[in-house]
Amino acid sequence: AQSVTQPDIHITVSEGASLELRCNYSYGATPYLFWYVQSPGQGLQLLLKYFSGDTLVQGIKGFEAEFKRSQSSFNLRKPSVHWSDAAEYFCAVGLSGNTPLVFGKGTRLSVIA
Amino acid sequence: EAQVTQNPRYLITVTGKKLTVTCSQNMNHEYMSWYRQDPGLGLRQIYYSMNVEVTDKGDVPEGYKVSRKEKRNFPLILESPSPNQTSLYFCASSWGGTDTQYFGPGTRLTVL
Q1: Where are the alpha helices (DSSP H) in chain A?
Q2: Residue A89: which of A14, A31, A37 has the closest Cα?
Q3: Which of B42, B59, B104 has the CB atom closest to A105's CB atom?
Q4: With an 8 Å Cβ cutoff, are A43 and B4 in contact?
């Protein structure tokens, strides 16, 4: 069955430190890949997406993600975390057409001084 | 401003009392969907609609109904709410199922 796994439920990093959030998927073909962020009390906002081409994609707020086909992964990174990055992050995966997106269970990021 | 709106934002109700959560988008998107978010479970799709009068079940459709009579609106109906439907609900819209989804602000529903 198709699935999306975010292995880390909660991560705490210091402000200014680097960040990597993991996402692994299980699909028969290369899917469309997304990262969304949900700030407290807010809806979800798209950070970045990968459909094809360059496997390193840049997003908003200084985030980037790298698609690695061999590892079925799409990890999210940021070189220097800011306190305002504290939020919940969701990886989502879909196939072509109108197949609904499947979301991971999310990783909650806490940022400490 | 491009947006997805949901109403109400907060609702406390009792078991069995029918309710409707409205969702409206102003981006002329064809695809709309409803999700529920529960701690530890992430977002799960309830229903989606690829266009007017076209709806289909998502992963957790039991206890919910939807309709899509106009392109901009996609209401979620709970005919007989139960406590296990206490959750945070999000409406989203996009051009297609795998395009960027634009989310509403959420509706926090409590069923007593």
Answers
A1: none
A2: A37
A3: B42
A4: yes
